[in-house]
Each structure stands twice: as C-alpha cells, then as structure tokens.
Amino acid sequence: MRQIVQLHFILLLFFFARLSAQSIPLSPPIEAKIDSIIRLMTLEEKLGQLNQIGGTWYDDKTERLNEEQTALLRQGKIGSFLGVMGAEETGRIQRIAVEQSRMHIPVLFGYDVIHGLATITPIPLAEASSWNLSLVEQSAHMAAVEASVVGIHWTYAPMVDIARDPRWGRIAEGSGEDPYLSSVMAAARVRGFQGMNILDDGSILACAKHFAAYGGAEAGRDYNTVDISERTLREVYLPPYKAAVDAGVWTLMSALNEIGGDPSSGSRWLMTDVLRNEWGFNGFVVSDYTSIQELINHRIAKDRTEAGIIGLNAGVDVDMVSRIYMNEMIDAVRSKKISETIVNESVRRVLRVKFAYGLFDHPYRNSDPSKGPNVLLSSQHRALARTIAGESIVLLKNENESLPLSKKTKTIALIGPLAGNENKRELLGTWAWTDKPDIIVSVVDGIRSKLGPTAKLIYEKGCEIESDSGARIEQAIKAARQADVIVAVLGESQHMSGEAASRTNLDLPGRQRELLKALVKTGKPVILVVMNGRPLTIQWETEHVAAVVEAWHLGVETGNALADVLFGDVNPSGKLPVTFPRNVGQIPHYYNHKNSGRPFSETDKYTSRYIDSPNEPLFPFGYGLSYTTFQYSNLTLSATNITKGQTLTVSVDVENTGKRSGEEVVQLYLRDDVASVTRPVKELKGFKKISLNPGEKKTVAFTLSPDMMSFYDLSMKRVIEPGTFTVSVGGNSVDCIQSQYTVGE
Ligand code: BGC
User: Fold this and answer.
1) I need a labelling partner for 115 at 20 to 30 A (CA). Which of 300, 344, 474, 536 fits?
2) pLDDT-derived band of residue 709, with 50, 70 and 90 as boundaries?
C-alpha cells in the first residue's frame, strides 16, 4: 500500500516542482491514487479524514492527546488536529497515525499562526498599512518557516474578511476595508505561507478565512447576522477570497455567520456553486470552530444529524471539533440520508491536500526537533520583524515638524500604560502568546537604546489601560513638567481586539483621555502614539496634540521600530487601510461609498448628512504622512478615448519636495461616472510604493485593464459600459489629481 503511494508521490513531486504558487490543477495520477485509497477505506475511516479535533490542555500548558483521542487516532477517526504543535509531539502523534492505523494515512496539524509564531510581527491590519506586498509576503513566509519547525503543517490564515466596521474586533486580523488592497494582501500572504513550492522546507498550507463576509456582522458585533446584497457580496466581500484561490491557496475556512438567511457553513451556493464551480477551487474547506454544530443555533438544522448533512452537502469537507461528521454521519450515510458519494468527494479533497503537502512520502517533514533553536526568533527574523513594524506605522499628524525627535533632546517624558515594561505583552496584539515576555522590546527600552548619552528619559505609566483604579496621573504630570517633549503611548490592550472583542465605544479606554488632557495642559509639546487593533475615535486627541503616530500592535520589535520612526532613522510611509471615523455614530464609514440621490451639500439641509457631526472621517482611507512631502503632477492617460476591452496606461509624476528621502504610496482610483447601476464614488485599482530622494522626481505608470472598468449589471453580469471614467491619483483617497477618459462601444 505505502509503496504504491510512494511511487505516485514521485510523479507528484515532479508535477508540483514545476508548479508555481499560482493555481491547483488536478494531477490524474494522484486522482487515480486517491480513488484506490478511497476504495479501501471503511465509512468510519472516511469520516475520520473529515474530522478535526483539538488535543487536551495539560497543566504544563502543552496540548497533547489523552487516551480517548489516541484511541480515535489508531482507529483512523481523526484526519487533522487543531492547535497541537511541537516537533516531538507532532512526530509522536504522526507515528501513531502512520504506523498504527489501518490505512496509515498521515494527519495534518493546523494552528492559528496569524502574525508570526515566535517572532511576532505586527497584526495583519498594521502590516496592511505598509502597502508593501513584498514585505508582507516575507513576513508570512517567516511565520511559515517558524511554524514548520514546530510540527505545524497548516495555518488558519490569512484572514481576508473585509471590515467596514471598526467596532468589530476582528478587523485587526485582516487588511481593512478595501477589496483591491485586501485582495493583493491576501495573495501576498498565501504566497508567503505556501512558499514558491509547497513541498519546500518552510512552506506550510494556508487557509483563507472566513468564507464568506464574516466581517459584515451587523452592528460590528462578532458572530452576528450578515445581510448584504449579492452585489455587495461579489463586489466588496468576495474578491479577497477569490484572490487567495487564484494565488493557489490550498484550503478555505467556512464562516460562522449567515448571509441573508444562508449560514455560510451550510451554504451550498457559497461552498460549491461559487467556490468550486465558478472559481475552480480544488482544495478543501474546513468549518470554523463548531460552525457545523452551530447550524442548529442558526435554526436551519433541528439536530446534529441534520446539521452534519447540511454541512457536508454544502461542501464543507472538514468538521472542526463538532465531531458530527465522525459520529452522526455514520448512521446518516447508512440510512441513506446523505449519499456516500458526497462523503467520498470530501475525503478526496482532504487526501489531495495531504498528497500535495507531501505527507504520504514525508509524514514527519516538520517534526525534526533539532531545527527549532536555529530558526525561532533568529536575529534575521527579528530584523525583518523590525523592518515590517517600522513600515506599518502611520504618521497621522505632525504639526510644525514636531517629529522626528532629536536624539539629543535633553529630557523626554515617556508616559502611558503601553510604554513601560509591565504591560509589554499587550504590544503583541491579538492571536499572539508568549510565556517569555523578555523577547518583547518595550517602548521604554526601544527609546532608551536610541538616545544619546546626555539625553534623559523619564518614564511614568500614568494610568492603567482599562481600569479606573491605580491611576498615577499626578506623578505623570510631575514627570512631564520636567521634560522638553512628552511622548504619550496610549491605546488598547491585547484582548480588546480580535475574536469576541467587539466594542460599542472606540474612545481610548479607561482614564487615558483624562491622562492625555492633563499632559496637554502642561503646555509642553505632546507626541501621541496610539496602539490599537482597530481605528479609534481620537478626534479630541488629534486636535490637541502636536503629532499623532498610529502604531497598532507591532509585535516583538515594537520598541525598536517605534524608536526608529520617532527619531527619524525610519521615515514613516504607512497609509491607513481603513477609514478612521470621528465618532461611532458615523460607522460604517468607508471611502468607496455610493453618491446617493442627495449627496452632502454644505448649504442644503436635505442632503445626506448628520446634524451633529461632519460627514468626513477623521482620517480617510489611504492617508498617512511622511517626514518629507510629495507633489503630484502631470497626470497623463495613454488615450482619452478607448473602446470596450482596451487597456489604458495612466502615468503621473511624483516629486519629493522635502528635505529627506522617503517612500510614498502612489494610489490610483477609478470611477465609472454614469452607469446603469449606481457605482462607488471611487475605487482603488492600483498602487505603487516608491522611494524618492530629496528633489527627485519619478514617473509612475499604471495599467487599467478592462476588468478594472467592469462591474455587475442589474442581471449580475460583468459588463463594461460606454461613457466617461474619472481617474484620480494621489497619496490618499481624498487628495488626488484627476483626469477623464471615455470608453466607446
Ligand atoms: C476562529 C477562527 C480560528 C479557529 C481555530 C475560531 O474561533 O473564528 O478564526 O481559526 O477558531 O482556532
């Protein structure tokens, strides 16, 4: 049996070695092999391949198998594990699967490696702020390399859910509000995790999640109902999943939410019609945690049996921890409530991915304990983490060039609950754990190592992140009074964003605003550094401080990366991947909105507006400053009249008009001015990150493809309609220069 598998594996090796990380065509010899394996399997073993369980947490904080789990493994009733890692442990478990189960089929080890494993990098929303696809890809690859030395085969990432509502805590895990930016980020991360070749050392399987539209939760409340039109779904929410599929992602995760009455984890339309039949996806779909069982709570299934039947029929291949496929589906198949052919199809997809990952030939590929020490948190990895953290920072305000600070500043008061060593775990953000806080560079340590010997740094916490108690505002003011400049590091703790962390109030939590007000009152210049997993409502703060630095949660190199930017060794180049509202009442607030029949007018009350707040956000999508300035000119189109189906080249000159070298993200937006359905006021269609020396000018060119000019008409067909299009190019979604062209028949 294993010999045949190996023979076919050689063919497979040849096949995949030639395959770039582009798409997943089927390999006839492997499919034939899978047929022969399936023919030999019992129903229990087949359903076992579709069953994923976690291990059991022991007192020593490791996750291992108990007796019951071990017995299931021997019986071939487990196809994959969630959350179990460690080179020794995974090797031990794999040995049971391969040597002691009847079919000898290796298991997969899945883990949530969301933004680094040991070398924790910035949260995905922060990395998206870098608009640097190559760095984002490298960051994902580094995570994969670290995961692969501790037994992990498969990460539940990237999360590619569009999020237009910052109340939703999981906005931290994605790339923000824009379909184009999120799509290219999704593809970059898939390439990073899966590597040039999935069989290479250091490559792991990626999982695009949560399919679909999980980020559309009403009221920003996690797990809540999603009710959006098919148009919005296809134009806004689906593109990043599609981009992941096109980039060759091997797995997807079905979401916990419903969309307009159809729970994703039971949606045949999503999992089969769209994903497989339209997009040609050949890998497998894993449910989200208990999302098969939750079909009962959604009330589309009356019991576990019905839930399992709906999930399997939909095309959700693997049941994460509900144990419904493993248990209830046996009788369901035997009593013909569900066809065994459906089960076989899911088993086929799971085995296909195991073949693709080379597990039949190398079941222990990631379980070599000697590899970890040289790889985890290596100095190269830390250096990359520092670079990407620096590029993830967004400068939001810089009055009178308050930044960068001089390394010779006599006295700096560093104030705030996120600045010191006691809260440094919070800097990691969501989905990151470590029992060794020593690996995290705090802000106080990062700044201290940057300062010259004569500079004095006084640190005071000021208050807690969330709690009202323990405030030392007076001491903070005392410290501030002695300083030339105050750096206030405020924001959210780790657990305030991520899963199950929705907020109704996006102000700085606890007594932090009160602390900032007191600091501002001293009359000293205040540099505000905000650390958060989502946009916060910081209008008051922005209006009253000299500079605002959006630092997100930057990971293990936070202090170094922040000091690089504060003292000008790194010129900030991040741009917001998401709109910052002024207040929660404006939410959802996104740049690519529709015009409405009564677009806002200053002079007309009966237009779309609030009576108590401006419409404009605090900071728009794409926004971010630099220590230098850039000027845009000479926007040129290769033609002003084209016909449908033709491409167009857009070029623009960008000049560094300031005194420092810097990087700029040149953004291109497009609008179909008049169409048969309403179109967004503008949509991002391209961007390029360029670097310019002082006085240097570069011409940046973009190609607008026919696809970029198309949209879904009323019958949901993709069309390009004749008429004028407006091209806007600039350094954010608002401050752009424009030109027009016409598309003829
Ligand atoms: C989350 C997923 C995650 C899974 C496994 C779920 O609660 O929604 O994003 O991958 O748990 O940990």
Assistant:
1) 536
2) very high
If we measure between CA atoms, which residue out of 211, 215, 207 comes closest to residue 158? 207
Burial class of residue 56 in the structure, from the number of CB atoms within 10 Å of its CB (0-12 exposed, 13-18 middle, 19+ buried): middle
For residue 23, the model assigns a pLDDT of: 56
301, 332 contact by CB (below 8 A): no
303 is catalytic: no
Element (H, E) at 211: strand 207-211
**264 confidence band (pLDDT: 50, 70, 90):** very high
Mutate which of 207, 289, 433 for ligand 1? The one with the most ligand atoms within 8 Å of its CB, which is: 289
CB atoms within 10 A of CB 524: 16
To test the pocket of ligand 1, the residue of 112, 152, 265 to mutate (highest count of ligand atoms within 8 Å of its CB) is 112
Query: What's the confidence (pLDDT) of residue 6?
Result: 43
pLDDT tens for 666-692 read 999 999 999 999 999 999 999 999 999
Residue 393 token pair: 């920072």
Nearest CA to ligand 1 atom 5: 289
CB neighbours of residue 453 within 10 Å: 5
- Nearby residues of 65 by Cβ (< 8 Å), 6 or more positions away: 55, 56, 73, 84, 93
Among 112, 165, 178, 288, the active-site one is 288
Closest to 548 in 3D by CA, of 624, 481, 621, 599: 624
Residue nearest to atom 6 of ligand 1 (CA): 289
**pLDDT tens digits, one per residue of 464-519:** 999 988 789 999 999 999 999 999 999 999 999 999 999 999 999 999 999 999 99
CA atoms within 13 A on the CB side of 306: 10
**Residue 544 is inside which H or E element, if any?**
helix 539-544
What local confidence, expressed as pLDDT, does residue 673 receive?
98
Q: Is the dihedral of CA 598, 602, 606, 611 positive or negative?
A: positive
